[in-house]
Amino acid sequence: MLAGHETPLDAHRRLLPEDVVEHVAEQVRVPASEFGFYEWSGFTIEYHRHRVSTHVGFRTCTTELAVWPAEEVAHAGDGSDYT
After folding, report:
1. Which carries the bigger pLDDT value, residue 79 or residue 57?
2. What is the pTM of this model?
């Protein structure tokens, strides 16, 4: 919160149930009370996002993969009979 003004991010933080915050805090061995001090923009979150993605094997979506569902699954606007 900046000088008494709530940002959209402040509102989103309150949407997380306390038990979720406590569970994640326990997993990363940080007090749940520290959650409000996390840097949600800039280098810190980019660094953490990269580390988590690398750890769990996430990769950046390619154009081919992004187009595939629309062409092969959704049949968007091609008049296919779904029955």
Report:
1. 57
2. 0.46
